[in-house]
What we know:
The complex is a heterotrimer. Chain B is an alpha+beta fold. Helix content of chain B is 22%, strand content 34%.
Amino acid sequence: MTAEQRAKSLGVHLVLIAYSLLAVGPILLVVMNSFKVRSAIFGSPLAPPDAATFSLVGYEKVFRSSHILTYYSNSLIVTLVSMALVLLFGAMAAWALTEYRFRGSTALALFLSIGIMVPIRLGSVAILNMMRSAGLNDTLTALILVYVAQGLPMSIFILSEFIQQIPRDLRDAARCDGVPETRIFFEVVAPLLRPAIATVAVFTIVPIWNDLWFPLILTSSDSTHTVTLGVQQFLGQYITDWNSVLAALSMAILPVVMIYVILSRQLIAGLTSGAVK
Amino acid sequence: MANLRIEHLNKRYGATTVLKDINLGIEDGEFVVLVGPSGCGKSTLLRMIAGLDGVSSGDIHIAERCVNTLAPAARGIAMVFQSYALYPHMNVRKNMTFGLKFTGVAPAERERRVAEAARMLRLVDLLDRYPRDLSGGQRQRVAIGRAIVRQPAVFLFDEPLSNLDAALRVSTRVEIANLHRVLKATIVYVTHDQVEAMTLADRIVVMNNGRIEQVGKPLDLYYEPANLFVAGFIGSPAMNFFDAKVETIEGGRARVAGAGFLNLDLPAASLKVGDTLTLGVRPEHLVRGVNGPFAAEGIVELVERLGEASFAYLRRVDGRMFVAEVRGRRTPSRGETVTLVAAAPDVHVFDASGIRVAMPIASWSDGAIVQS
Amino acid sequence: MAEPVSNITAQMPRAKLAGLLLFFLGPAVVIYTLFSIYPLVATMALSTYTSDPSGARSFVGLANFETLLGDALWSKPFWNALGNNLIFFAVHMCMQNPIGIALAGLLSLPGLRLKGFYRTVMFLPTMLSVVIVGFSWNLILSPLWGVAAGALKAVGLGSLFAPWLGLESSALVTLSLISVWQFVGIPMMLIYAALLNIPEELIDAARVDGLGQFRIFFHIKLPLVLPTISLVSVLTFVANFNAFDLIYSVKGALAGPNFATDILGTFFYRTFFGNQLQLGNPTMGAAVATVMFFIILLGLCLYLFLVQRRIRRYAF
Lengths: 277, 372, 316
Ligand SMILES: Nc1ncnc2c1ncn2[C@@H]1O[C@H](COP(=O)(O)OP(=O)(O)OP(=O)(O)O)[C@@H](O)[C@H]1O
Ligand SMILES: [Mg+2]
């Protein structure tokens, strides 16, 4: 490397490091301070917690005065069940739309793609009415149904692209082998869609976990709140109690960050894979 | 095992017809190879036999049973794909047994068949491997094994060797030939490769543009191509063609002239003055000399030396090129004017519509070059 | 490249095909229709009704829309929210695309080290909930905590600090920038993917032709990722015009100060559910949602007919 090249590369790294700091700095700051005593939060906000300033008082408060564990389990249930259904029904529909020629298939594909662009939120008034009259108001089921409906169009779109990449010969070989159509889908095609899960997750699952709107309008009791809503309400209630607020924020951040760090390679590969161009 | 009969078969995609009135009978145990240029409809025909593509009109009979509307699995066929099409998430054993599960073969019988196929194809040590851990040749053998265990009436192969390297292609070709001998199976085999076609086939079907041009034994196609297309398609380098015209007819002999070759006499038979003909001579049938019923002349432009033979590319007086195979170590040099002759049986005559005209050899202008 | 479809349906009996389609498409179509399309349609239908205090509904045609756009009590906040929403969108367009392009361009430099690390870190905010992000920034920018003020002082710009989120003049732009900060990862990643898709030989050819890195980027790479940029823009448009979470979690339903940060999402929420100042009104809420639907539709149509048509997609 020549000196000029080295200088250039250094400059590039400086810019990237600066932006990386800007991206994680605020998150780091919140998490760091959540482990400190109040005086240290205000006295030296940029210092990491040490023996003198370390404190879990905020977390104790959150555990004591909110149902944070219920929120976690609600979020987990809603997200996982929605994800499973979005993937299953989305893959099944994508398979039928790409593999079988039938009259009206183009129209149906168009119909299903409306939901990619038009946010389902705009139908909230009617959704709330429906859920009320079906007795599903304030249940996780209501959330799951809405999220599945919301996630399906995008997942069908993404999974169709993946299914189209599966060699035609493979499906034809299975047909020559006498494998029934449903088995071709479940035993030959579905196992090959695993790489698509990451892409679907980025585009449909992350928004579900993070959503505030539908929990806000569809759930009213603590027992059905998700993390996002529960923490949001907690924050509003304890806004002056900085230890608790920072702890609550951190508790919403940390699980997501941990899962993200573990899966980031797949998630980013999913995001940058050919399916979304 | 079974015979296969195709009658007036057509295939249309929207407005385009990709197969036109295909008629073909294949005997029980016969090895038939489909050849033809890319896009001529070979794969389509094979896939229709398999039941993977629907029939637009016409009939397909397997073992004297019309299978037009049967699902692929009900037709008693097995297909081997160019891309192998192995299930990537199943090991070799599972790949071979997967299909049997659904056709009501008992587990013990499945194992027996897999064991037998594995022995036949030297796959015994590979049964627990996944396709990604196999070489191309091994994958192709697994794909063949998967076909064998189904004990089909008809095997369908779509360019099974074209993803293999040259050496492997030869050895797998031999293996397929052996397999055919052992299994005595009916096989329909699509290929681009002439050598494969010539060496494997009992009969070759030459297709072009959605039609069958000729069906025949390999050497029949080589020595008696039915038309210009087959003449040009079979053989490598391709046959040389010379445009010719009947100038005069005298005493039962037609004097034929054209650019690049010396005038010659043909038996008049049904020829008339003014008829246009095409004469075809294969490069390997042109030899250096001065005396022959057919003599062509050209200036050497390029010599390709292959070793046991060389190909000389010659420019004719009308500017077009023709090719001659030269044997031996001494090759003509560039710029040299060379005369090449061919024996009467090696000169193919085609009429204006491209159909081969059979010429009784005896009544050629017995060996004397008629100077123009 | 996509594989051709099998034509297996050609010789399948009709009943069998119908059964298969029902099996594979049924669940998705039913759930989607019932919980996505039907509510949209029902909401639009509801927007032509009004309800009296007893709860009885009566058909009023387009009267709700006349009220929304004509009655000052309604139209003032509506136009305010729409105007704010346009500013919100404009800030996104002006910031996230250039930043996204720049970061993606740097990330795609050949031979860059730590690429994976940078990508992971820079995409992290996008994974978090808007609520959490909004609130975290709320704390950081708060004069109470003084982190932002301190940081500015450290670089000698202490006098520039102001409680941006609290000021009527700067609250909206600040919130927009927070949103950009969070979501810039998406344009960055998609453009990065598009850049990676440009064949190496094309760049090599340009280099052989004597173009420098900058020229290559502006004359070759940028035109080739234009379709991605326009896709990102339309995604941003849709997201911005139904945004809600950020404003609600930082500023509450009243979108203060003095409605300076009110956008269509919060306006819709207040109209539908009510708040300290007014009672909830489902039919007017439905009317607001319907107007939002048509705004998004208008945006999509403009995109399809004006932008999409002119942009060429290049096949490699
Ligand atoms: N689904 C389809 N729709 C329209 N045309 C098709 C379809 N499938 C094949 N064709 C056309 O049918 C013709 C025959 O195709 P086919 O694949 O049978 O050719 P082939 O002889 O196998 O060629 P190759 O040697 O390249 O494999 C081609 O011109 C192709 O474009
Ligand atoms: Mg083919």
